[in-house]
Design goal:
Blueprint: H1 2-20, H2 24-33, E1 44-55, E2 58-70, E3 75-88, E4 93-107, E5 112-124, E6 136-150, E7 154-163, E8 185-193
Antiparallel strand pairs: 1-2, 1-8, 2-3, 3-4, 4-5, 5-6, 6-7, 7-8
Length: 195
C-alpha cells in the first residue's frame, strides 16, 4: 500500500511540475489551432467518393458521401454513408452493401493526415461454415491509416487503410491490395471540400 501511495504522490508531483512549465508561448500556439471564433457552418466540411467500374460481366458502383466538423484546424470528425452495388451482368443478379461510418482525421502537415474510421455495413454472410451463408449479415470494419491530399479548399485525397477488425463478412476482402488472403489493407480515394 505504501508503494502505491508513493507512486501516486510522485505522479501528482510530476503532473504539477509539467503544468507549471506551460508558458505564454504554449497558449499562443494552442490559440492558433483553435476555431472558437469560427461560426458553426464554417467549421463543416464535406466530400466523399464515387466509384464506378466494369470488368468482364460485372458492373460496380460505389457512393460514399461524408460530412464532418472541424474541431480544431488540424482535427476533424464526422459521419459517412456508403452504398455499393455489384451487378453480375450475365446472371442479372445484384449484390448491394449499405451502411454508415464514424471517422476522425488529424492533419500532421497541411497535406498529410492520419485517419481512423469505424464502419458498419449490411452485407452478406461470407462464412461457408455458417448456417446463414449467403444471406444478409452485418460486417464491421475498423480502419486506421494515413492519407495525402492534393489541393487546398477542394482537395483530392488518397488514403491507405488497415482494417484492424478484418471481419469475415467484410465486402472489402476482394479489394485488399495484396489479394483476398493478404493483409486487410485497402486504398481509397475521394474529394474533400473545406478540410
Amino acid at each position: 500500500m505504501k508503494k502505491l501511495l508513493s507512486l501516486l504522490t510522485l505522479l501528482c508531483i510530476c503532473n504539477i511540475t509539467t503544468l507549471a512549465q506551460y508558458t505564454k508561448e504554449d497558449a499562443k500556439s494552442d490559440n492558433k489551432n483553435s476555431l472558437s471564433d469560427v461560426p458553426f457552418k464554417d467549421r463543416l466540411f464535406t466530400g466523399g467518393n464515387i466509384g464506378f467500374g466494369v470488368s468482364g460481366n460485372a458492373l460496380y458502383l460505389d457512393l460514399s458521401p461524408i460530412i464532418g466538423y472541424k474541431i480544431t484546424t488540424k482535427l476533424g470528425a464526422g459521419v459517412g454513408l456508403r452504398y455499393s452495388l455489384l451487378r453480375d451482368m450475365y446472371y442479372k443478379i445484384n449484390y448491394t452493401n449499405y451502411g454508415g461510418s464514424l471517422f476522425a482525421r488529424y492533419k500532421v502537415i497541411p497535406q498529410a493526415f492520419l485517419h481512423a474510421e469505424l464502419e458498419g455495413l449490411r452485407a452478406y454472410d461470407y462464412n461457408p461454415l455458417s448456417p446463414g451463408y449467403g444471406e444478409r449479415a452485418m460486417a464491421y470494419m475498423g480502419f486506421l491509416g494515413a492519407g495525402y491530399s492534393f489541393g487546398d479548399g477542394v482537395s483530392f485525397s488518397v488514403t491507405v487503410l488497415y482494417d484492424v477488425i478484418d471481419h469475415v463478412n467484410s465486402p472489402y476482402r476482394s479489394t485488399y491490395l495484396l489479394g483476398p488472403t493478404g493483409p486487410p489493407v485497402i486504398l481509397r480515394g475521394g474529394l474533400t471540400i473545406g478540410f
